[in-house]
Amino acid sequence: MKEYHHLLPLATGYFGASSALYDFDGLIVVYGPAGGAWHINIEDEPRWYRGPATVVGAGLLEMDVILGNDDKFINNIVQTAKQLDRKFVALSGTPISEIIGTDLKGFAHTIEARTNLPVFMVPTAGSEPYPEGASKALLALADKFMDDSAPKVANGVNVLGAIHLSTGKENHLEPLYRGLIQQGYELLSVMSSPCSYVENPLEGFCRAPGAAINAVVSTSGIKLAQEMYSRYGTSFIVGMPVGRSGQDCFFKYLKGETYACESRVSGAGYRHAVVVGEPVLSYGIKHSLSYDFGIPEIDVVSVVPSEELFSEIVGCKGIMAEKGAADLDTDEENIIRQKMNTPDVDIVIADPCYKALLESEKRFVCLPHTAMSARANWDMPYEYVGEEGYNYLSEHM
Amino acid sequence: MNLDNAGIRLADLKQKSDFPFAPLEGVGPNLAGWGVIETCLLLPQSIAVMVGPSACLRHSAFMAHARGFTDRFYMLCMSELDMTLGNHLENIERGVADIISRRDEKVVFLIVGCPDYILGTDFTGVISRLEKSTGRRIILGAMAPITIGMKESPFTSAYTSFFEFLKDKDRDSSESVVNILGTFMPLPESSELYQVLNGAGIDKVLQIPLCRDLDEFSGMAKGTASVVMHPLANGLCGKMEKEMGIQSCFAPMSYGFSSIREQYDKIGGAIGCSFELDELEKSAGEKSVEMFKMIRGKKTAVGCSINGSPFELALCLLENGVDVETLFARGTIKPYEWGLMDNLRKIKPEIMVYNASHPALCGKTDPFDSIELAYGVDAGMYCKEAVNVPLSRYQEQAYGYEATIWMLEQTMEAMNNPVRNYDWIYEHDFLI
């Protein structure tokens, strides 16, 4: 049991699935009561505003659960999917479908037969970390859409794990895409935020097996990267190129080279930092704090599981994450509060929500995490990638 | 998806089954309104502890934080497996006891979500042990959208549960107390209703959001009558009437002069007096005439997220020369609104009424580009070229003729200094 008071519980599985699939022109049906999908849209998915319906709710009611009104929902989904003219339908589970054991896989088969659309289910519930739902959604989409015979592109690269719950608004990754193009790469697919270099996201996804390498920018993309290595032999790196040193490291790893870390101390003057957030980005921040700003002690609190980063991953050419002895995996409010308020910690970098946990004056640098504060900081100006990230950190530290 | 699926001409909307059915819940702003947590926490000296899977907690937490209840709202996160096996009860008992030990409030609302509701989890033992060991009152409630459409919604149930703090109180009604029920934002002391009631000799008016503690709240037991401004309070006033003999009347906030007079008549009937309203109506008429002139003939849409009934506001606007073209409603059209629709239909039967949550509406803004004035943030979302006037129940509470003036002043303000619908939703939290 976790107790929350000042903070929000993090987004969970079906939020992750919705985030991962949002940009591919499908229809995502959250199989639960009306409130589930509505809250995703109004809080966690600001891209919905005045846009076409992407995440919709099944509107499950008590009597439907008791009586097992499966036909009614199958008919409703079929009717809506046909009339909205979408590329696929994804059914995402909720605590209710989990508890009553709804056969969403069976639903998917039936709906596929009746719509001639690709239909799949994502086995989500309501307590798991959101990257789990995102990973499952991307794997399911890959099963349906990845073209095993896609032409090989020697300088082709895919970006995996760019889900908005982890990486925020699409513009934050623009320096990454620009950097890849400048380095001579062709961007085949971005999973899953819109990107000016990939005209049709779903077509790009189909062509993704043609890439020479995958760049995984959040834990949500690791499982798909492993799957693509197993199916297509596509190797990958894991990391977010935060700041100047992070960017250098990222491109060295991408080319299969080693990176010799050099501290480029800018005299930030802090002794002990705590970074709270999604692990890949947080370790990217740690890299920058260490090598761009010379902070000697940096602890990372991963609010979603980070163990995948530190286990042996077949096909991985490089991981931009250095585990520290005092690092933690937890999203529990009280543990994070204790960590942030450790007396010698003099700077905290985290989503603005966490500021409520500070008990004394410390430098607090805002780095929004959409899976935590949702739309509250969606429009906030901040950066983390490359030179823009360096400038943001430099300005706010 | 054809937009026609989502709407119906007012001329053809005569019963609930005529209202366009949404095969799936779209991303429309269909659920704006009262939440269970904020309803519970209207009761003074209370805290809420919500238990359930973190997805459900996250949904409710947004509402609680947006309404400023962070300090009185706790969440205990449970896994689906533990809930199914009933293993969570022990954790809940321990967690609630721990929270109570850090708080002074006398009442704890233990709020469960859809999973516990569906599983039929029995909290009787947990509650009775907690009440015994802590001396606090524990009230079980449900934040369970799966129960939508039931005879009494979870919101109404939460509000009705306040009866527990009234039923055993002294019933001496010599003080001429009038209770106002169903408001979230309180009426200000300077409000017209206070003046009208004072004029009729009522010197004590109680509103729940203004009660500092349970003692003050329990003063409602001395009520001469209760004025219900929102159907949410119908359960509570029903019990107060049946079991305590406190007369009540349903007199919702209205914008049109004829409706306002009708509401005042109902209040007078419940209290047993009549009000002198001519001067108030005359003064409001004089104040409003120029402002109505400014919006006369404007193509207008009215949504269901406004304080009051969209049908009543539409009627008021039409009667004053405003060209209402479109309404956005929910499936839960209230019983008293069918009469308003009859009147509206006589004036302009071609008005289109859309189901705000229909997926066919999502992404469709072009058909509403001609709308110049949109009341309610839900209407403003679809009418992107319109001046958006939220008239949100979270702004302030007005009543009587001052509600008409408030509506018009808000309109003038929005026309002179328009605020983006996006900002109403995301910066002012007017959609949740």
Keywords, separated by commas or semicolons:
heterodimer, A: 397 residues, alpha/beta, five-stranded parallel beta sheet, 16 helices, 39% helix, globular, B: 432 residues, six-stranded mixed beta sheet, four-stranded parallel beta sheet, 14 strands
Give the biggest sheet of chain A.
5 strands, parallel
Strand content of chain A: 15-25%
Q: What's the total helix number of chain A?
A: 16
Largest sheet of chain B, described in full? 6 strands, mixed
Mean pLDDT score of chain A: 94
Q: Radius of gyration of chain B in whole Å, from Cα?
A: 22 Å
- Let me know the number of strands of chain A: 15
Cα-to-Cα separation, first versus last residue of chain A: 35 Å
Strand percentage of chain B, roughly?
A: 15-25%
Q: Give the largest interface pair and sizes.
A: A-B, 65 and 66 residues
Secondary structure: number of strands of chain B: 14
Question: Which residues of chain A form runs of ≥5 with pLDDT under 50?
Answer: none
Taking strands numbered 1, 2, ... along the chain, how are they ordered across the largest sheet of chain A?
Answer: 7-6-8-9-12
Q: How confident overall, as mean pLDDT of chain B?
A: 92
> Level of helix content of chain A?
25-40%
**In terms of structural class, how would the helical and strand content of chain A be classed?**
alpha/beta
Number of helical elements of chain B: 17
What general outline of chain A do the C-alpha atoms trace? globular
Biggest sheet strand line-up of chain B? 1-12-11-10-13-14
Q: Which range best describes the helical content of chain B: under 10%, 10-25%, 25-40%, 40-55%, 55-70% or over 70%?
A: 25-40%
